[in-house]
Specification:
Elements lengths: L7 H7 L26 H8 L14 H14 L3 E5 L2 H10 L7 E5 L4 H13 L3 E5 L4 H7 L4 E7 L11 H10 L4 E4 L4 H4 L9 E5 L13 E5 L13 H4 L10 H5 L5 H14 L5 H11 L2 H19 L5 E5 L9 H7 L7 E6 L5 H14 L4 E2 L9 E3 L11 H6 L6 E5 L5 H12 L1
Parallel strand pairs: 2-3, 2-4, 4-5, 5-6, 10-11
Antiparallel strand pairs: 1-7, 6-7, 8-9, 9-12, 11-12
Length: 434
Amino acid sequence: MTLPERSLATAQVQAGYDPRTEVHTAVPPIYQSAAFAFSSLAEARDLFALRKNGDIYSRAANPTVLVLEERIAALEGGIAAAGVASGQAAVALSLLALVHQGQHIVAASQLYGGTVDLLHDTFPDWGIEVTFVDQDDIDAWRAAIRPTTRVLFAESVANPLAQVLRVSEVAEVAHAAGLPLVIDNTVATPALQRPKEFGADIVVHSATKFLGGHGSTLGGVIVDLGTFDFTAHPERWPQLTAPYAGTGGDSLVERFGERGSPFIALIKTKYVHDLGPTLSATSAFQLLQGVETLDLRLGRHSESAEKVAFALADHPRIAKVHHPSLPDSPWHAAALAYLPRGAASVFSVDLVSTGDADGDFALVEQFVERLRLLRLVANIGDARSMVAHPASMTHSHLTPDQRAAAGISETTVRLSIGLEDPDEIIADLVQALG
Protein backbone atom coordinates (compact mmCIF):
# COMPACT_ATOMS: atom_id res chain seq x y z
CA MET A 1 0.00 0.00 0.00
CA THR A 2 1.44 3.33 -1.00
CA LEU A 3 0.80 6.36 1.14
CA PRO A 4 -1.01 9.23 -0.50
CA GLU A 5 0.99 12.28 -1.40
CA ARG A 6 1.24 14.51 1.62
CA SER A 7 -0.63 17.77 1.67
CA LEU A 8 1.18 21.05 2.00
CA ALA A 9 0.14 21.35 5.65
CA THR A 10 1.49 17.90 6.57
CA ALA A 11 4.63 18.15 4.45
CA GLN A 12 5.69 21.48 5.93
CA VAL A 13 5.66 19.89 9.38
CA GLN A 14 7.02 16.38 8.75
CA ALA A 15 8.74 16.03 5.37
CA GLY A 16 12.46 15.30 5.25
CA TYR A 17 12.98 14.08 8.80
CA ASP A 18 12.71 10.69 10.47
CA PRO A 19 13.46 10.73 14.23
CA ARG A 20 14.97 7.23 13.93
CA THR A 21 17.70 8.46 11.57
CA GLU A 22 21.27 8.26 12.90
CA VAL A 23 23.77 10.90 11.78
CA HIS A 24 27.40 10.28 12.69
CA THR A 25 28.63 13.82 13.30
CA ALA A 26 32.26 14.43 14.28
CA VAL A 27 31.27 17.17 16.74
CA PRO A 28 28.54 16.83 19.38
CA PRO A 29 25.39 18.13 17.69
CA ILE A 30 22.84 20.51 19.16
CA TYR A 31 19.70 18.52 19.91
CA GLN A 32 17.46 21.58 19.93
CA SER A 33 14.22 19.79 20.72
CA ALA A 34 11.83 20.22 23.61
CA ALA A 35 10.76 16.56 23.50
CA PHE A 36 11.77 13.23 21.99
CA ALA A 37 9.89 10.55 20.04
CA PHE A 38 9.43 7.14 21.65
CA SER A 39 9.76 3.92 19.68
CA SER A 40 6.77 2.43 21.53
CA LEU A 41 4.43 3.03 24.43
CA ALA A 42 6.24 0.31 26.37
CA GLU A 43 9.50 2.24 25.99
CA ALA A 44 7.77 5.42 27.16
CA ARG A 45 6.44 3.61 30.23
CA ASP A 46 9.91 2.33 31.14
CA LEU A 47 11.48 5.76 30.69
CA PHE A 48 8.92 7.50 32.88
CA ALA A 49 9.32 4.82 35.56
CA LEU A 50 13.13 5.31 35.50
CA ARG A 51 13.64 1.67 34.54
CA LYS A 52 15.44 2.71 31.39
CA ASN A 53 17.79 5.58 30.56
CA GLY A 54 16.76 7.86 27.75
CA ASP A 55 15.39 11.22 26.73
CA ILE A 56 11.82 12.28 27.44
CA TYR A 57 11.72 16.07 27.67
CA SER A 58 14.57 18.56 27.60
CA ARG A 59 13.61 20.21 30.87
CA ALA A 60 15.34 17.36 32.73
CA ALA A 61 17.57 15.69 30.11
CA ASN A 62 18.91 16.37 26.63
CA PRO A 63 21.53 14.52 24.55
CA THR A 64 23.73 17.61 24.04
CA VAL A 65 23.59 18.41 27.74
CA LEU A 66 24.47 14.77 28.47
CA VAL A 67 27.73 15.14 26.54
CA LEU A 68 28.68 18.13 28.70
CA GLU A 69 27.68 16.26 31.86
CA GLU A 70 29.75 13.20 31.01
CA ARG A 71 32.73 15.33 29.99
CA ILE A 72 32.81 17.35 33.23
CA ALA A 73 32.25 14.19 35.28
CA ALA A 74 35.27 12.64 33.54
CA LEU A 75 37.42 15.72 34.17
CA GLU A 76 36.52 15.71 37.88
CA GLY A 77 36.81 11.93 38.25
CA GLY A 78 33.11 11.67 39.07
CA ILE A 79 30.50 9.03 38.31
CA ALA A 80 27.73 11.29 36.97
CA ALA A 81 26.78 14.94 36.57
CA ALA A 82 23.79 17.21 36.05
CA GLY A 83 23.91 20.28 33.83
CA VAL A 84 21.74 23.18 34.98
CA ALA A 85 20.97 26.74 33.94
CA SER A 86 23.63 28.56 35.99
CA GLY A 87 26.26 28.18 38.65
CA GLN A 88 23.82 29.59 41.19
CA ALA A 89 21.38 26.82 40.27
CA ALA A 90 24.14 24.24 40.68
CA VAL A 91 24.87 25.43 44.23
CA ALA A 92 21.20 25.69 45.17
CA LEU A 93 20.12 22.31 43.80
CA SER A 94 23.11 20.38 45.13
CA LEU A 95 22.34 21.63 48.64
CA LEU A 96 18.54 21.34 48.40
CA ALA A 97 18.97 17.69 47.45
CA LEU A 98 20.83 17.11 50.73
CA VAL A 99 19.18 19.46 53.23
CA HIS A 100 15.49 19.80 54.07
CA GLN A 101 13.41 22.04 56.28
CA GLY A 102 14.62 22.00 59.87
CA GLN A 103 18.11 20.88 58.90
CA HIS A 104 21.44 22.66 58.84
CA ILE A 105 24.45 23.55 56.66
CA VAL A 106 27.96 24.57 57.72
CA ALA A 107 29.53 26.87 55.12
CA ALA A 108 32.68 28.91 54.74
CA SER A 109 32.45 32.67 55.28
CA GLN A 110 34.69 33.17 52.27
CA LEU A 111 32.16 32.71 49.47
CA TYR A 112 30.96 34.50 46.36
CA GLY A 113 28.39 37.15 47.29
CA GLY A 114 25.52 35.54 45.40
CA THR A 115 26.10 32.29 47.29
CA VAL A 116 26.05 34.15 50.60
CA ASP A 117 22.73 35.74 49.59
CA LEU A 118 21.32 32.28 48.87
CA LEU A 119 22.53 30.76 52.14
CA HIS A 120 21.98 33.75 54.41
CA ASP A 121 18.67 35.08 53.06
CA THR A 122 16.79 32.52 50.95
CA PHE A 123 17.54 29.22 52.67
CA PRO A 124 16.32 30.47 56.07
CA ASP A 125 13.04 31.41 54.36
CA TRP A 126 12.67 27.66 53.66
CA GLY A 127 13.52 26.62 57.20
CA ILE A 128 17.14 25.68 56.44
CA GLU A 129 19.72 27.07 58.87
CA VAL A 130 23.28 27.95 57.87
CA THR A 131 26.30 28.56 60.09
CA PHE A 132 29.22 30.42 58.51
CA VAL A 133 32.76 29.71 59.70
CA ASP A 134 36.23 30.93 58.83
CA GLN A 135 37.34 28.35 56.29
CA ASP A 136 40.87 28.27 57.74
CA ASP A 137 39.65 27.46 61.27
CA ILE A 138 39.30 23.68 61.22
CA ASP A 139 38.12 23.61 64.83
CA ALA A 140 35.32 26.03 63.90
CA TRP A 141 34.10 23.64 61.20
CA ARG A 142 34.02 20.83 63.74
CA ALA A 143 32.32 22.89 66.45
CA ALA A 144 29.58 24.14 64.11
CA ILE A 145 28.25 20.66 63.29
CA ARG A 146 24.89 19.78 64.87
CA PRO A 147 22.75 16.62 64.88
CA THR A 148 20.69 18.28 62.12
CA THR A 149 23.70 19.16 59.94
CA ARG A 150 23.61 17.46 56.57
CA VAL A 151 26.46 18.99 54.54
CA LEU A 152 29.62 21.11 54.65
CA PHE A 153 30.13 23.60 51.81
CA ALA A 154 33.05 25.74 50.63
CA GLU A 155 34.91 26.98 47.56
CA SER A 156 38.24 25.37 46.66
CA VAL A 157 39.56 28.83 45.79
CA ALA A 158 37.42 31.61 47.22
CA ASN A 159 36.03 34.46 45.15
CA PRO A 160 37.23 37.25 45.31
CA LEU A 161 40.36 36.98 47.52
CA ALA A 162 41.68 33.61 46.27
CA GLN A 163 41.92 32.03 49.72
CA VAL A 164 42.87 28.40 49.19
CA LEU A 165 40.79 25.89 51.13
CA ARG A 166 42.58 23.08 52.98
CA VAL A 167 40.18 20.60 51.41
CA SER A 168 41.61 17.45 53.00
CA GLU A 169 41.27 18.80 56.53
CA VAL A 170 37.69 19.99 56.02
CA ALA A 171 36.84 16.66 54.37
CA GLU A 172 38.17 14.80 57.43
CA VAL A 173 35.87 16.85 59.66
CA ALA A 174 32.88 16.16 57.40
CA HIS A 175 33.52 12.43 57.14
CA ALA A 176 34.14 12.02 60.87
CA ALA A 177 30.60 13.32 61.34
CA GLY A 178 29.22 11.12 58.55
CA LEU A 179 28.54 14.12 56.27
CA PRO A 180 29.39 14.92 52.65
CA LEU A 181 31.63 17.81 51.61
CA VAL A 182 30.42 19.87 48.65
CA ILE A 183 33.07 21.98 46.92
CA ASP A 184 32.50 24.83 44.47
CA ASN A 185 35.43 24.35 42.10
CA THR A 186 34.55 27.18 39.71
CA VAL A 187 37.73 29.23 40.13
CA ALA A 188 40.23 26.36 40.13
CA THR A 189 38.47 24.01 37.66
CA PRO A 190 39.74 20.44 37.29
CA ALA A 191 42.64 21.84 35.25
CA LEU A 192 44.17 23.21 38.48
CA GLN A 193 42.55 21.01 41.15
CA ARG A 194 40.42 17.88 41.35
CA PRO A 195 38.79 18.08 44.79
CA LYS A 196 38.10 14.35 44.75
CA GLU A 197 41.82 13.78 45.26
CA PHE A 198 41.55 15.64 48.57
CA GLY A 199 38.38 14.01 49.92
CA ALA A 200 35.49 16.04 48.48
CA ASP A 201 32.26 14.17 47.66
CA ILE A 202 30.35 16.52 45.36
CA VAL A 203 31.62 19.31 43.11
CA VAL A 204 29.70 22.21 41.62
CA HIS A 205 30.71 24.65 38.90
CA SER A 206 29.55 27.84 37.38
CA ALA A 207 30.32 26.72 33.83
CA THR A 208 29.73 30.33 32.81
CA LYS A 209 33.24 31.06 34.01
CA PHE A 210 36.41 29.15 33.09
CA LEU A 211 34.76 26.00 31.76
CA GLY A 212 33.12 28.02 28.99
CA GLY A 213 35.78 30.70 29.00
CA HIS A 214 34.19 33.04 26.49
CA GLY A 215 31.75 34.92 28.71
CA SER A 216 28.81 34.35 26.38
CA THR A 217 26.84 31.51 28.01
CA LEU A 218 25.31 30.80 31.40
CA GLY A 219 25.47 27.29 32.79
CA GLY A 220 26.18 25.19 35.85
CA VAL A 221 27.23 21.61 36.58
CA ILE A 222 26.83 19.34 39.62
CA VAL A 223 29.17 16.33 39.81
CA ASP A 224 28.77 13.31 42.07
CA LEU A 225 32.29 12.10 42.78
CA GLY A 226 30.98 8.72 43.95
CA THR A 227 32.82 8.81 47.28
CA PHE A 228 30.02 9.28 49.82
CA ASP A 229 28.00 6.32 51.10
CA PHE A 230 24.46 7.53 51.75
CA THR A 231 23.50 4.07 53.02
CA ALA A 232 25.82 4.29 56.02
CA HIS A 233 23.21 6.47 57.77
CA PRO A 234 20.07 5.84 55.70
CA GLU A 235 17.81 7.65 58.15
CA ARG A 236 19.59 10.91 57.31
CA TRP A 237 18.90 10.65 53.57
CA PRO A 238 15.33 9.31 53.12
CA GLN A 239 15.17 11.16 49.78
CA LEU A 240 17.71 8.59 48.52
CA THR A 241 17.16 5.51 50.68
CA ALA A 242 13.37 5.40 51.17
CA PRO A 243 10.86 4.40 48.45
CA TYR A 244 10.78 7.09 45.76
CA ALA A 245 7.56 8.00 43.97
CA GLY A 246 9.23 8.28 40.57
CA THR A 247 10.39 4.66 40.60
CA GLY A 248 7.12 3.05 41.60
CA GLY A 249 8.37 1.91 45.00
CA ASP A 250 12.14 1.35 44.84
CA SER A 251 14.50 3.79 46.48
CA LEU A 252 16.91 5.74 44.29
CA VAL A 253 19.77 3.85 45.92
CA GLU A 254 18.16 0.53 44.96
CA ARG A 255 17.41 1.71 41.43
CA PHE A 256 20.67 3.53 40.63
CA GLY A 257 23.19 2.40 43.23
CA GLU A 258 24.77 -0.21 40.97
CA ARG A 259 24.59 1.55 37.61
CA GLY A 260 24.75 5.27 38.25
CA SER A 261 24.33 8.01 40.81
CA PRO A 262 21.24 8.09 43.08
CA PHE A 263 22.19 11.67 43.98
CA ILE A 264 22.26 12.91 40.37
CA ALA A 265 19.07 10.97 39.65
CA LEU A 266 17.43 12.91 42.50
CA ILE A 267 18.77 16.22 41.14
CA LYS A 268 17.39 15.55 37.65
CA THR A 269 14.10 13.79 38.37
CA LYS A 270 12.99 16.00 41.26
CA TYR A 271 14.77 19.35 41.45
CA VAL A 272 15.50 20.09 37.79
CA HIS A 273 12.22 18.46 36.75
CA ASP A 274 10.10 20.25 39.36
CA LEU A 275 11.81 23.65 39.54
CA GLY A 276 12.92 23.90 35.91
CA PRO A 277 16.45 25.47 35.95
CA THR A 278 17.19 23.80 32.60
CA LEU A 279 20.43 24.10 30.67
CA SER A 280 19.55 24.48 27.00
CA ALA A 281 21.09 22.33 24.29
CA THR A 282 22.60 25.38 22.59
CA SER A 283 24.16 26.58 25.83
CA ALA A 284 25.62 23.11 26.47
CA PHE A 285 27.09 23.09 22.96
CA GLN A 286 28.69 26.51 23.49
CA LEU A 287 30.15 25.45 26.84
CA LEU A 288 31.59 22.30 25.26
CA GLN A 289 33.54 24.47 22.83
CA GLY A 290 35.26 26.10 25.78
CA VAL A 291 35.91 22.89 27.69
CA GLU A 292 37.94 21.54 24.75
CA THR A 293 40.71 24.10 25.47
CA LEU A 294 40.40 24.24 29.27
CA ASP A 295 43.91 23.16 30.29
CA LEU A 296 45.56 25.33 27.62
CA ARG A 297 43.66 28.40 28.75
CA LEU A 298 44.05 27.79 32.48
CA GLY A 299 47.80 27.48 32.08
CA ARG A 300 47.94 30.90 30.42
CA HIS A 301 45.47 32.44 32.88
CA SER A 302 47.45 31.18 35.85
CA GLU A 303 50.88 32.15 34.54
CA SER A 304 49.74 35.66 33.62
CA ALA A 305 47.97 36.22 36.95
CA GLU A 306 51.07 35.27 38.90
CA LYS A 307 53.11 37.71 36.82
CA VAL A 308 50.58 40.48 37.49
CA ALA A 309 50.50 39.70 41.22
CA PHE A 310 54.26 39.93 41.58
CA ALA A 311 54.38 43.14 39.52
CA LEU A 312 51.83 44.83 41.79
CA ALA A 313 53.11 43.49 45.11
CA ASP A 314 55.47 46.42 45.77
CA HIS A 315 53.48 49.20 44.16
CA PRO A 316 53.18 52.16 46.59
CA ARG A 317 49.47 52.69 45.86
CA ILE A 318 48.57 49.06 46.69
CA ALA A 319 48.28 48.06 50.32
CA LYS A 320 47.91 44.32 49.72
CA VAL A 321 47.89 41.82 46.88
CA HIS A 322 45.78 38.78 47.73
CA HIS A 323 47.35 36.10 45.57
CA PRO A 324 48.43 32.73 46.99
CA SER A 325 51.53 32.53 44.79
CA LEU A 326 53.16 35.36 46.76
CA PRO A 327 55.48 33.99 49.46
CA ASP A 328 53.95 36.22 52.15
CA SER A 329 50.39 35.05 51.42
CA PRO A 330 48.71 33.20 54.31
CA TRP A 331 47.58 30.66 51.69
CA HIS A 332 50.93 30.17 49.96
CA ALA A 333 51.60 26.78 51.58
CA ALA A 334 48.05 25.65 50.82
CA ALA A 335 48.46 26.72 47.19
CA LEU A 336 51.61 24.62 46.86
CA ALA A 337 49.76 21.61 48.27
CA TYR A 338 46.35 22.00 46.63
CA LEU A 339 47.15 23.83 43.38
CA PRO A 340 50.28 22.10 42.09
CA ARG A 341 49.52 23.01 38.47
CA GLY A 342 49.28 26.74 39.18
CA ALA A 343 47.26 29.16 41.26
CA ALA A 344 44.03 30.71 40.12
CA SER A 345 43.80 33.86 38.01
CA VAL A 346 41.00 35.46 40.03
CA PHE A 347 42.37 37.43 42.98
CA SER A 348 42.11 40.85 44.59
CA VAL A 349 44.19 43.84 45.52
CA ASP A 350 43.54 46.44 48.22
CA LEU A 351 44.32 50.02 47.24
CA VAL A 352 45.86 52.22 49.91
CA SER A 353 42.88 53.60 51.82
CA THR A 354 42.10 57.28 52.24
CA GLY A 355 40.69 56.54 55.68
CA ASP A 356 37.20 57.57 54.63
CA ALA A 357 34.47 55.41 53.03
CA ASP A 358 33.42 58.04 50.48
CA GLY A 359 37.03 58.83 49.72
CA ASP A 360 37.77 55.13 49.23
CA PHE A 361 34.90 54.76 46.76
CA ALA A 362 36.14 57.79 44.83
CA LEU A 363 39.64 56.33 44.82
CA VAL A 364 38.45 53.01 43.38
CA GLU A 365 36.17 54.79 40.92
CA GLN A 366 39.07 56.89 39.62
CA PHE A 367 41.24 53.79 39.28
CA VAL A 368 38.57 51.94 37.30
CA GLU A 369 37.89 54.92 35.03
CA ARG A 370 41.56 55.12 34.09
CA LEU A 371 41.72 51.52 32.92
CA ARG A 372 41.88 51.09 29.16
CA LEU A 373 42.43 47.36 28.66
CA LEU A 374 40.69 45.79 31.67
CA ARG A 375 36.91 46.04 31.68
CA LEU A 376 34.48 46.67 34.53
CA VAL A 377 32.37 43.50 34.35
CA ALA A 378 30.49 41.40 36.93
CA ASN A 379 32.02 38.13 35.74
CA ILE A 380 35.20 36.09 36.05
CA GLY A 381 36.94 33.44 33.98
CA ASP A 382 36.50 35.22 30.66
CA ALA A 383 39.14 35.39 27.93
CA ARG A 384 39.11 39.14 28.60
CA SER A 385 40.69 40.69 31.71
CA MET A 386 38.14 42.25 34.04
CA VAL A 387 37.86 44.18 37.27
CA ALA A 388 35.05 44.50 39.80
CA HIS A 389 34.53 46.30 43.10
CA PRO A 390 33.09 43.68 45.46
CA ALA A 391 31.91 46.13 48.12
CA SER A 392 29.62 47.96 45.69
CA MET A 393 28.96 45.13 43.22
CA THR A 394 29.14 41.37 43.81
CA HIS A 395 29.18 41.55 47.63
CA SER A 396 27.14 44.73 48.07
CA HIS A 397 24.22 42.90 49.74
CA LEU A 398 26.45 41.64 52.54
CA THR A 399 26.63 43.45 55.85
CA PRO A 400 29.90 45.18 56.80
CA ASP A 401 30.57 42.34 59.24
CA GLN A 402 30.02 39.72 56.52
CA ARG A 403 32.37 41.53 54.16
CA ALA A 404 34.96 41.82 56.90
CA ALA A 405 34.67 38.08 57.60
CA ALA A 406 35.34 37.46 53.91
CA GLY A 407 38.34 39.82 53.97
CA ILE A 408 36.73 42.44 51.72
CA SER A 409 37.30 46.14 52.35
CA GLU A 410 36.04 49.29 50.61
CA THR A 411 39.28 49.46 48.62
CA THR A 412 39.29 45.81 47.51
CA VAL A 413 39.36 45.43 43.73
CA ARG A 414 38.85 42.01 42.17
CA LEU A 415 40.92 41.10 39.12
CA SER A 416 40.18 38.32 36.66
CA ILE A 417 43.25 38.04 34.47
CA GLY A 418 42.48 37.03 30.90
CA LEU A 419 44.41 35.82 27.91
CA GLU A 420 45.84 39.14 26.71
CA ASP A 421 49.56 39.91 26.81
CA PRO A 422 50.45 40.00 30.53
CA ASP A 423 52.87 42.90 30.09
CA GLU A 424 50.09 44.98 28.59
CA ILE A 425 47.76 44.02 31.46
CA ILE A 426 50.40 45.14 33.95
CA ALA A 427 51.01 48.38 32.07
CA ASP A 428 47.30 49.20 32.12
CA LEU A 429 47.01 48.54 35.83
CA VAL A 430 50.10 50.58 36.66
CA GLN A 431 49.01 53.60 34.62
CA ALA A 432 45.57 53.46 36.19
CA LEU A 433 47.13 53.51 39.66
CA GLY A 434 48.74 56.83 38.72
